[in-house]
Design goal:
Two copies of one chain form a homodimer.
Chain A (H helix, E strand, L loop, with lengths): L10 H8 L17 H15 L6 H8 L6 H4 L3 H13 L10 H18 L15 H15 L5 H32 L3 H7 L1 H7 L6 H8 L9 H22 L3
Chain A binds a DNA duplex (30 and 30 nucleotides) through α3 and α4.
Protein name (chains A, B): Regulatory protein, tetR family
InterPro entries (chains A, B): Homeodomain-like_sf (IPR009057), HTH-type_TetR-like_transc_reg (IPR050109), HTH_TetR (IPR001647), Repressor_TetR_C (IPR004111), Tet_transcr_reg_TetR-rel_C_sf (IPR036271)
Keywords (chains A, B): DNA-binding, Transcription, Transcription regulation
DNA sequence: TATTGTTTCCGTATGGCCTACGGAAATGGG
DNA sequence: CCCATTTCCGTAGGCCATACGGAAACAATA
């Protein structure tokens, strides 16, 4: 399937849901069996356990013990529900750190990474047209405040922000991708690569790939950790180098 | 839908397809109406036009004027077809550049970016368990050769490689995400943001978001270009800073 | 030409998905 | 009791991947 799309529908309705604008009390009419919060919570639970692909309207309704179509009374559609899910888990970040601007940016990256770890389906949510809710906005404010304290010019802050934001979400997503695939297919990344040993035996050509061969012979791939360990250290390394570059560009 | 998954199935069969290992000629039996190449080409054409979500087996078969099930004679399943599509478009990169190691890495980033631009559905293809075909491998060889010339220690080359590869694919993906959404929904990114003007009017709180407000007042968001232009310069900026950091770390 | 072995083609069927529509059911006030 | 209002949800239409097995095409042989 292609990536889950959100951000559709009527902006006013979606924003009201994201910010939980309390509709004026309606003392008249049948009592609701479920609330928006319950729907979002149930949807997150399903996606956490079985992935975003398994998060169907029918599945969520079943989880709550109501009919499928009942959900549409509270939520305009699946796209908007995904918006609500994403903003909700982004609110789980605890962004109240002190320290230098670098420490704060790294804290932000760490907390965001934790969200992806806890909710691997975030990999499948596009962030180019993000849910403009409190979860996203609080995060933006936090990073921008940190970058603004770095001494960069205002215009540079916004450019650096896009780069940092892109790196953090991208790295967290690809790190989590492995786990998500492991859960979905029942095969770990290490085992997947192991099963592709045939490739090195039957297809790899040392003459076509001299640089890779040289690195291999130099022991560059003799790592002790698992695939997940390596992806974790690459995340930290890449962010460090990016911040080094941003810092260096200020001089 | 969640991200399209590939890399499943029997490794030996998939590798044989990726490297087009010619099965021994079969002069006996009914003549095939379609070839693997035709199927892959048709699938890419559909995905280019209508996105990976529209690339169904039925749709591809229709494109070729054959029955849906005929495809399964030549390709094990949809996952493997996506593997073949991805490796095929990665082969479109022309990676024969001269220059310093930095110039070559930037050339690689530029060519990879071009692939995503031409085939936006690549955003939806996971690269954590990549198709081990010539398209992917030639790219890896090219970057590793460049990084190995930078003077980094072998072990450091592999770490930097993961960071660069992650950045390039991540940035190209999010850049293209916007265009893909524009094509799928018929609404451009600029127009989408315009429709969310309500947010700034009704929900944005200057006291809750002082850093954003200050940047706004400083004119940091007074850009003349389109959203696409800004994403493009962020791509270049981020890669530059990342390479600065890698270079600086060698000292 | 008729037969046989081999390969490809593809119709059918199963079980899933989202959501438009409209009627039934519940609730509080008069 | 009646009625306005709100929520609940069954049905139905049109998508999807792919397992299965028989029909059809072709080359070599008799």
């Amino acid at each position: 399937m292609a990536a889950e799309r959100s951000g559709g529908g009527d902006p006013a309705r979606t924003l009201a849901l994201l910010w939980r604008t309390p509709a004026e009390p309606k003392p008249v009419g049948r009592k609701p069996k479920v609330s928006v919060d319950q729907i979002v919570t149930a949807a997150i639970a399903v996606a956490d356990r079985e992935g975003l692909g398994a998060m169907s309207m029918a599945r969520v309704a079943q989880e709550l013990g109501v009919g499928t179509m009942s959900l549409y009374t509270h939520v305009p559609g699946k796209g908007e529900l995904i918006d609500l899910m994403a903003d909700t888990v982004l609110q789980e970040r605890d962004l109240a750190a002190e320290g230098t601007w670098r420490e704060r940016v790294k804290h932000y990256a760490d907390r965001t990474r934790a969200v992806y770890q806890a909710h691997p389906w975030m990999r499948d949510v596009s962030m180019v047209r993000p849910p403009l809710g409190p979860g996203l906005m609080d995060g933006q404010e936090f990073v921008l405040a940190a970058l603004a304290d770095s001494g960069l010019e205002p215009r540079q802050v916004t450019v650096a922000h896009v780069a940092v934001e892109g790196f953090v979400h991208g790295a967290a997503a690809s790190e989590v991708d492995d786990q998500q695939l492991a859960a979905a297919t029942g095969e770990s990344g290490d085992s997947w690569w192991g099963a592709r040993q045939v490739f090195w035996d039957d297809y790899f050509d040392v003459e076509r790939y001299p640089a890779m061969t040289a690195l291999w012979n130099a022991g560059a791939y003799d790592t002790e950790g698992t695939l997940a360990d390596n992806m974790r250290s690459s995340f930290d390394y890449g962010l460090d180098k990016l911040l080094d570059g941003i810092e260096g560009g200020m001089r």
